[in-house]
Amino acid sequence: MEAAALAPSLKNIAPQQEYLLQGSILDTHRDVLLHRLRGLCDNAERNFEAFSDYEAVYVLRNSSTAQQSQNQHVTFRVRHALDHSDAPDHIRYLGQAELGDRSRHTLVRACLDVACSSNVRDFLTEMGFRIDHDYVVKGHFFHKGRMKVTVYKIFRLIQPNKTDPHNLEPLGQSHLVELSVVAPLGQEQIGEDMKNFAEQLKPLVLLEKFDHRKIQ
Amino acid sequence: MGVSCVFSYPVPEGRSGAQVVDILQKQVETMGGSKTGTFYVDCETYQSVMLNPPKTLHILHNSEYPASCFAILDSGATLVADTLFIALMSNLKNIYQAWKGAKIESKGNRFQLADFILKIGSVSLAGSFKGILLEVEYCPCIVASECWAMLKELLQSLIGNIAESPPSALKKKKWMKSTPQQPQCCSTWTISTTLGKLPP
Asked: What is one Pfam family matched by this protein (chain B) (predicted)?
């Protein structure tokens, strides 16, 4: 039957890559950018689509010698929508970012999104993962074709495990802006499209490929 | 979704697994069951390396839930996720390694008999035949304790005394509701397919 044939075949999904550009904008100028994005992106006639997510970062370390474990750790990001409590949780795995040479316009990294049941945080803890840090992101979401644009702010949790608005402290005085596409490996055209789109947001925001290793 | 239970059916000496499956299928058809396709359940096992204490993780696929997989830790914790979860496991290969030769699967035909769904599957471990499992589901009800009499009546005409008492999973539970902490698919199948419970 179809169902029986489907289960094994679904396991062989092509690896997905995330193409990413990042930038930031001061809180005071955020609305100008939102209106610009609304004009440029799909569904311009609709209101802004807002999101509010809780993200917890879990790390699994190999408990062998300390030196080895530095390299041998895996990070999973678990996301949960605060404004849609019935939506499934997500585990996101992000690979090592590749900057590439000048001819490549975006940062590229392996990306895996897996929807799962809401007990995922307990399950990962049982598997041996430990929570590294957690935060809340609130912002707006746009899309143009397969490009996704998010304008969001990161909030620190003053007391752990409490995500009510009184317990959130905004980090910095600016919003993060991300332009990303998740697609199978080797589609270099995406980088070109993203660069062209980013050009249209200048000089409000400069979207660039950032080397995260230099910031850490 | 109703109440279901899984039974292991012994293969008598002198008969092959395929013959016994065939007899069971014919019996179901004689009782008025009609074939509604095939089914597939498999379980892969991963073991932790260098984790203290060591952990074992089973990942189950079930053709009734073709886009999901069920991860079960030896502690009993369960997670329902997209089938892509298996790709996450490949990123953990330094810490959780697939136990080669421990892939166990059950394949066979699925029958519908009025309010019941019957699945007769031959179980194989790493390709070699291990036994026969029979899953029976009573669809209209989710109160486990209320269904046993109904299930028993059907099962006794099919597999006889093997279905004398309800499986332990069914005894423990009042409600057969599928929750993230205890998905129904896992509670019935893990008991039969995880390696510890395999017939030798």
From this structure: Med20
Cα B175 to the center of its chain, rounded Å: 18
Closest among B76, B74, B75, B98 to B86, alpha carbons compared = B98
Residue A178 in contact with partner chain B when CB distance is under 8 A? no
Q: Which helix (H) or strand (E) holds A191?
A: helix A189-199
Nearest to B150 by CA among B159, B160, B162, B137: B137
Q: Which residue in B has a C-alpha nearest to residue A74's C-alpha?
A: B92
Question: Is A185 an 8 Å CB contact of chain B?
Answer: no
What share of residues in chain B are helix, strand, coil (percent, to 5)? 30, 40, 30
Q: Which of A141, A146, A126 is nearest to A193 (CA)?
A: A146
Delineate the domains of chain B, giving CATH numbers in brackets: 3-195 (2.40.320)
B191 pLDDT higher than 50: no
Cβ proximity of A141 and A50 under 8 Å: yes
Task: Write out pLDDT tens, residues B21-48.
Answer: 999 999 999 999 999 999 999 999 999 9
